[in-house]
Amino acid sequence: MDKVFSTDGTTIAYEQQGSGPAVVLVGGAFMTRGDFTDLATLLAEHCTVITYDRRGRGDSGDSPEYDVQREIEDLDALIEHVGGEVMVFGMSSGAVLALEAVARGSAVSRLAVYEPPFITDASRPPLPADYVAHLTDLVTQGAYGDAVAYFMTAAVGVPAETVAEMRQAPFWTGMEATARTLPYDGQVMGDTMSGRPLPADRWQSVTVPVLVGSGDAGAPHMLTGARELAALADTFALHVFPGQEHNIAPQLLAPVLTGFFTTGEQA
Across 6-115, where does the E strand assignment appear? Predict the structure, then answer.
């Protein structure tokens, strides 16, 4: 493990492996760099792969006040450290963070995303209007288990009775460990989980090639959102993974990403 310093002095922990063109992997809610181990190993056969802990998670530091721009600066610090321009893969809410970084000028030459969790239709309820505020209150109170439960029911759509059972599972402790960053992901998502169409102008400055991935066996709103995103620009292309859900198999994702990052293949 190594560390870089972001603009505000926050330490960002990362690992690097492989050789070839540089690719940074950006995780979604709860994810730390270790969650990308299998995917990173496969990509490292063709690329230099950088995995990192987003601020507030794992071995990275944090700051008292959160702003999406700080997370973009974290990514920029990694980009500068590895040579000044990279390609990026973003998973779930990490996909939206990556999109936002490119839109704000980060040095990214190609971007691949998988299932940004947009809610753009009526196939499931939108987030409550006070979603981020309520999450923040729970985290501020130190009620990390309740924050995880609220995220799972309100954002993911898991039934409350299932979440009650999940709270007894061994993995719940790991989720609580990163629960304080759940409001961060809420701010990254903005109003894109409101049940309304995506804002056409939010990422209009993204002109690099973008591969938008989604499975066809998960929640319907995921594929709908991916299709809407891919339709925003001629440089965006949709790739549907048959039989896959939100937790896509790395061995199916890696070849598609490798083709996109090394040859520009988008289908």
Answer: 11-17, 22-26, 48-52, 86-91, 108-114
Give dist(CA 74, CA 89) in Å, integer: 15
Strand partners, 212: 113, 238
- Angle at which helices 93-103 and 68-81 pack, to 10 degrees? 80
pLDDT, one tens digit per residue, over 212-226 is 999 999 999 999 999
Tell me which residue has tokens 């690329």: 47
The predicted-structure confidence for 90-128, as pLDDT tens digits, reads as follows 999 999 999 999 999 999 999 999 999 999 999 999 999
Long-range pairs, 10-13, Cβ under 8 A, ≥24 = 10/55, 10/60, 10/61, 10/62, 10/63, 10/70, 10/74, 11/60, 11/61, 12/52, 12/53, 12/55, 12/60, 12/61, 12/74, 12/77, 12/78, 13/52, 13/53, 13/58, 13/59, 13/60
CA 264 from centre of chain: 22
- CB-neighbour burial class of residue 77 (10 A; exposed 0-12, middle 13-18, buried 19+): buried
pTM of the predicted structure, to 2 decimals: 0.96
CA 267 – CA 259 distance, rounded (Å): 9
